[in-house]
Structure formats: C-alpha cells, structure tokens
Amino acid sequence: PGFYSRQDIKTPVKIAIVTLIMTQLMNLAFIGPLKHAGLSLSIGLAACLNAGLLYWQLRKQDIFTPQPGWASFLLRLAIAVVVMAAALVGMLYVMPEWAQGTMPYRLMRLMAVVVVGVVAYFATLAVLGFKVKEFTRRTV
To answer: TM segments (predicted)?
Structure first.
C-alpha cells in the first residue's frame, strides 16, 4: 500500500521482476544439490529479498520511517526465533528417525515437535516482556 497509495506502480513491479529473476537463478543453483529443499530455500530467500527491496525503497523515498522501539521489537523477535530453532534442532537428537513407527505414531511425534517449537517461541517472548497488545494493529 505504501507505493500504490502514491500511484507508484512501477517500483513494486520492478522489484517483483528482480525477485522473479533471482528466484529462477537460485532455483538453478539450489535444486541440483538440495533437490526439493533447494526449491523451498530459493523461494524463501526470494521472499526475503522482495521484502528487503521494498523496505529499502520505502526508506529511500522517505515513505516509511519506523517508529521508536522497532529495533528492540525486532531484536526480541529474533532472539525468540533463535531459541525456537535451537529447541527444534535439539528435537532432532531426541526424536527417532521419521521412518520408524506407524503413521499415528509419526503424527504424534510431529505434533510434539510443533508443540515444543510453539512453547519455546512464546515462552521466550514472555520472558523478554512481550505483551499481546504489541502484536495488535494500531491506527494513527
């Protein structure tokens, strides 16, 4: 909406084209060695590139200026993500191989992994002082 509300359609389209080209280049680079995981990686990295380029243009054109406290907010989110990732990597060493057991047993293990990730993430946010209202949308 930052660009479209200013009748600037060209900037997001140019960024989308760059993102599309980079996605295809990353597909070529990652799919060979990483197979289907390479496809997911290239799409995820391209999404980050797209968001970063849009953010850069919003800042460059003085359309967007972050409110005070955003750096702290993002740092706390990043810490929670790192803690969650560490908990999930730790689950790799606790859980048996995916191929072991029946499908209901596999699904129970998968649910356990999801629960551990959710608990680690939100517990870290709680320890860091997050409040639910920080996630609600505020209008000016």
So the answer is: 12-31, 37-58, 70-95, 107-130
Tens digit of each residue's pLDDT (9 = 90 or more) over 20-59: 999 999 999 999 999 999 999 999 999 999 999 999 999 9
pTM, two decimal places: 0.73
How far apart are alpha carbons 101 and 8 in whole angstroms?
55
Give the span between the Cα atoms of 30 and 26, in whole angstroms: 6
Owner of token pair 């517990």: 123
DSSP per position, 35-84: THHHHHHHHHHHHHHHHHHHHHHHHHTTS--PPTTHHHHHHHHHHHHHHH
CB 49 within 8 Å of CB 41? no
Model confidence band, residue 137 (pLDDT cutoffs 50, 70, 90): low
Please, which residues have CB within 8 angstroms of residue 34's CB and are 6 or more apart in sequence?
41
Q: At what angle do helices 10-34 and 36-60 cross, to 10 degrees?
A: 150
Distance of CA 77 to the CA centre of its chain: 11
- The residues spanned by each domain of the chain are 1-65, 67-140
